[in-house]
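dumping the sequnces here before i forget
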Amino acid sequence: MTQEELIPLILKKDERAFTIMYDMYSKSLFSVISNLLKETEDAEDTLQEVFVKIWKSIDGYSESKGRFYTWILNIARNTAIDKLRSKGYNNSQKNLSADNFVHLLDDSNKLNNRIDTIGILEFVKKLKPKCIEIIELLFFQGYTQQEASDELAIPLGTVKTQNRNCINDLRTYLKV
Amino acid sequence: MDTKQYIESGILELYVYGLLSESENMEVAQLAKEHKEIETEIISIEKAIVNLSTSFSPFLSADNFEKIKAKLNLKYSNVIEMKPRNNWSQYVGWAAAVTLLVGIGYQYTQLSETQNQVATVEKEKTNLQDTLVGLQLRNKQTLTALTVVRDTKNTVINLGGQAVSPQSFAKIYWNKETEVVYVDAAGLPEPPEGMVYQIWSLKLAPQLTPTSIGLLSDFSSNTEKIFAVEKTGDAEAFGITLEPAGGSKSPTMEQLYTLGKV
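..and the predicted 3d for all of it:
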């Protein structure tokens, strides 16, 4: 089911559509949440909170504002960041070389899609370290272009195009 | 507008990531509506990033979905958590099924066997009851015979064997007060088919007058061979003859088995 088919059902509060939506996006959001909140329990609580928010505030979404996935991604990231703050983590500044979304692969027992992941692992080896950094900041952590530019010490305009190149590599690999 | 250049700028990636301002978002959404290639590009970027992030997801237990459903009071469909199919549990299942079937078969055999046993026991019980009834009957007959023999008021007349059957003998128990007569026929042979013993009370003077006082019917089934016959008040002798079934009006003297005087 595509987003275009799913959205009208979700807006009608079709409970089956909720299940489909969960199947389509829960793991994606869970990796974003888990990347920010290292404790499994915190991450799971947050994921639950996120889906409760999505369903309860569904009327606030409109396609003119953007993609549905983008809307729920923002809810997930913001809820996780709020949780991070409420937990009193001071060093939200990360050591990027060691601590990014790739660490999610470390605990191989926790992996959902072993076969996909093995493929992704090969891809990640080929992926430029710059790409890991930039995807980590922009997608996983939701940094603005300016923040990423400051963090990576690269010109503002380069952030956007570099990210574009990284996503193109990924798309070539995934054939999408 | 140069859509290719717009796409290559990398703004669509930031759009999918959710990093644009509200006004920028509205603009991209509007352009996507107008230009198919922009929309297609957005969908491809989304697929790529959803795929990448999904692959990095740690294990997500189905409990989470159940908890969310509970919080939202949703009723529909479960997310099924796939577990590797376990051959071991499959075999245990089959083994259990086979064991159950064998067990049922065994129980069934046991049941029918038990039912047969019950039937046999029932039959035996009936047989025993029949025997008991028979014994009680015999006991009653014996008691009757004993009572007859023991009665002190009885006159006992011994009847001796006659020419046709010298080995035969019989006894008459005659209570002169009540005039009741019993015959002990244990010393008589079984009567031939179609024949019956007939008992006569005899008056000897002034002339021999025989009076029939009864037939020893059912001779073979009366195991005690004690027979009650009709009363008589004035017999001087008793005789027993073999007569055709049903008896005769007067005794057939050639077939006089036993005779005795009072």
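Helices of chain B lie at 3-8, 11-17, 22-34, 36-55, 62-72, 87-150.
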